[in-house]
Amino acid sequence: MNPIISITIGLSMAVFSTQLFAQESANSSHASPYAGFETRAIKSLSEADIEELRRGGGWGLALPAELNGVPGPAHLLELKNEMGLSPEQIAAIEEIFTEMQAEATMFGEQLIAAEQAIEEAFVSGNLGDDRLRVLIEDAETARANLRFVHLSRHLLTPPLLTEDQIVLYKTLRGYGSDPCTNVPEGHDADKWRQHNGCE
Question: Which one of 93, 103, 177, 182 is separated from 141 by 20 to 30 angstroms, measured CA to CA?
Answer without folding.
Answer: 93
